[in-house]
Each structure stands twice: as C-alpha cells, then as structure tokens.
Amino acid sequence: MAPRPINSRLNAAVGAALIAVVAVTYWAWHSGGSNSGPGATSAKADAPDAAPPAADSVDLSDSQLDAVKVAPAEERDFPIEKEAVGSIDFNEELSVQVFTPYQGRIIALFGSVGDDVKKGQTLFTIDSPDLLQAESTLIAAAGVLDLDSKNLDRLRGLYTTRAVSQRDVEQATSDHQTAEGNLRAARDAVRLFGKTDADIDRIVTDRSADSKLIVQSPITGRITTRNGAPGLFVQPGNAPAPYTVSDIDTMWMVANVAEGDSPAFRIGQPVQVTVDAFPGRVFEAKITTIGASVDPNTRRVLVRSEIKDPQHELRSGMFANFVIRVGGPTRSPAVPVDGVVREGDGTMTIWVTADRRRFTRRTVKIGEQRDGYRQILDGVKSGELVATEGAIFLSNELAISQ
Which end of the chain has fewer surrounding CB within 10 Å, N or C? Predict the structure, then answer.
C-alpha cells in the first residue's frame, strides 16, 4: 500500500507542470509572440540593437591580435581639390623664332640646342647680297658727298674773285646738301642690318663692303631648336626658323581637364605641380589660361599654368600632375589608408570593433585622400574604434571562415 501515495504526488506534480506550460504559452501568444499582435511593434522598438550577423564579423584569438592595430576614427580637414595630368612646355609667349632679316646663305652657326645665350649674342651669320648692295650704296654716297664738298669749296673760292657766278655757287650748295641727305639715308639703310656707327665709319673709311650679316639673339634664354646649317639659303619668315630661343625662367604646365571639372577653375588660382623627375618637390604655379572651347573628341578643356623656374630644372615634355584647391576644407571622419579595403565588388569597407577582439566589417563611402588618411563620408563616426592596420588580414580571415 506504500507506493500509492507516491504515485499520487507524482501525478499531481506532472499536472501542475503541464498547466504552467499552457499558461506561459497562452500569455506569450497574447503579449507579442505573434507578429501580428499589438505588442509586436513596441517590443521591437524597445529592444536593444541586435548583434551583427556572424557572416560579417571576425573574432580574433590572442595570437592574432598582434596582426591588427586599432585606433579611433578622428576628424580631419580635407580641402576641396581637383587633380589633372599634363606636361611641361616652354613659355611660348617668351619664345622667339630667330629668322634672318634678309635673304642669304648661312656662313656659320654659333650655338647648339641647350646652349644658354644672352641678348645680342651672335647666333649665325649669312652672306647677304642685300647688305652688300646697301654698303655699296653707302660707299658711293660717301664718295659723292666728298666730291660735292670739294667742288663747293672750290666754287666759293672762285666766287670771291668773281670768277664764277653766284648761280654756280648756289647749284653747288644744293648738290652738296643732296649728297649729305643721300649719305644719311645710306647710313640708316646699313644700320638696319645691325651695323653700328663704328662699323659704318669703317666701311666708309676703308671703302670696303662686307656682305657678312650677323644675326643676334633678341632675348636672353636657351636655344631650344636649331634648324640652320652652313650653306643653307634662308629667307625672312620662311619656316623653319634657323633658331628658336626661349626664356626658361618661367615654364608652362599644360593640362586637359574633364569638362565637368572646368567650372571650378579660375584665372589666377594657385596650382601645385609635381613631376616624376623630382619626387617630393612641389612647384608653385598660377593658372593663366583656360580654354574657350571643349575638345569634341576628348570632352576636355585646356588649362594652362605658369611656373616660376629660376633654377632651370624643368624640361619641356616632362609629365606633370597638378592639384588645385577650388574650395575651403571640409572636416570629416578619417581613417588611415591601410584601414580601408576595396572589396571584389568595388565597395569600400572598414573594420570596426567595440572590444578590440571582435571586428565587424562595415561598408563606407569614401572621399579624398590626404597625408595618408582617407576621408569617410558615410559609414563611421568620429571616435569609433577601427582597424588602422591589418584590415586586409581581417578580410582574409572572414573569407576563410565562410
């Protein structure tokens, strides 16, 4: 008879448990267990943020923590800048094609490409028939004036003794004045060929004409092209010029910018130019010309800047990059460049953490890059802990775990 009370108590306990389960289930169904229940919305709103899905997170072991460095995202200033690629060229406004002023054959040349020359320095000489004719006219005019001067003096002496009439003296005076005018004109004609007064006096004294015409550099600069050669017949204005001399104290940086970027540029804006030949060097420039039309093939606009180059370091044809600030700086969260990963689909991601052990991948929108930092336009707040080194390691660990 002893087992009967035990069975009764066991049955009573089981029955109580079943009643409790039914009660809990009934209460849960009525208080929000159903998606359509009235308490569903408020329950979700009041609930804390759910943990990120495991598919986007990586938990590191103690041995793996050394591969990742963590730092808070910080606010940094990012100026609004535009970049473009161009090339260095000579300042065409300070480049001169040196032609011969008169036709003739080149006798000798006195400069090569790359030589620095001064203003007035001889570049080449030519055998000029025009100069020979001008000097011959000068010698003849000087001879006529000398003859008329002697004739006038002789007639004036005879006039004192009434051996000649006054009319003869007046005619001789007129002839003398005409000869003086002809000589002045002949001297000016020879002076046009670059002869000095001392050269002209010597030609008159020696009664010797020299057809060698000296062509000098009109500016101080560097010889950039040479097309002349001894014996070559040259004429004024006929291309190519025997020489081209350029002032290289200033150079041009010529770039073609995208049509959409062109409204941001203005005449006089400062430009920072870098060239591969001088790593780390920045050449200061200023925009001097903006093209008036868009290239129909490339949809780009010409932008030309003038660069001061007193040391003559730049060379025409060098590739150059230029950066121009077109607006004030904007302050945004920033992450070191090594903390940003480009995924296979082209999206940019970073890794954030709250406990420095569990890292979660987050897609971000990036902006400019400056001084080793990448601007984050959306996806992270200042002060959040992010992986500054080892972001690629985290991406690889995530790929392995999936």
Answer: N
How many angstroms separate the CA atoms of 62 and 168, rounded? 127
Q: Give the Cα-Cα-Cα angle 274, 280, 283 (nearest 5 degrees).
A: 40
CA distances from 234 to 97, 239, 317 (A): 13, 9, 29
Range 95-128+211-247 classified under CATH 2.40.50.100: yes
Q: Answer yes or no: CATH 1.10.390.10 is held by domain 129-209.
A: no
Q: Which CATH code, of 3.30.565.10, 2.40.420.20, 2.40.10.220, 3.40.640.10, is assigned to 54-77+330-401? A: 2.40.420.20
Classify domain 248-328 at the CATH class level.
mainly beta
| Band (319; pLDDT cuts 50, 70, 90) | very high
User: Rounded to whole angstroms, what are the CA distances from 93 to 98, 222, 335?
Assistant: 14, 14, 46
Dist CA 251 CA 266 (whole Å): 19
pLDDT tens track for 22-72: 443 443 434 444 343 444 333 333 434 444 445 688 888 888 888 899 999
Q: Model confidence over 207-242: pLDDT tens digits?
A: 888 888 889 999 999 999 999 999 999 999 898 999
Of 86, 149, 132, nearest to 322 by C-alpha is 86
DSSP 47: S
Q: Please list, residue by residue across 213-236, b when 16 or more beta carbons sit within 10 angstroms of its beta carbon and e when fewer do.
A: bbbebeeebbbbbbebeeeeebee
Cβ 294 vs Cβ 300: under 8 Å = yes
Contact at 8 Å (CB) between 357 and 63?
no
SS3 225: strand
Is residue 186 within 8 Å of residue 162, measured between CB atoms? Answer: no
Helix (H) or strand (E) holding 44: helix 40-46
Beta bridge partners of 232: none
Residue 23 CB neighbours (<10 A): 10
Cα–Cα distance, 148 to 312 (Å, whole number)? 59
Nearest to 97 by CA among 227, 271, 282: 227
What pLDDT digit, counting tens, does each position of 342-392 carry? 988 889 999 999 998 899 999 999 988 888 899 999 989 999 999 999 898
In DSSP terms, 294 is beta-bridged to 301
Domain assignments of the chain as residue spans, ordered by start: 54-77+330-401, 95-128+211-247, 129-209, 248-328
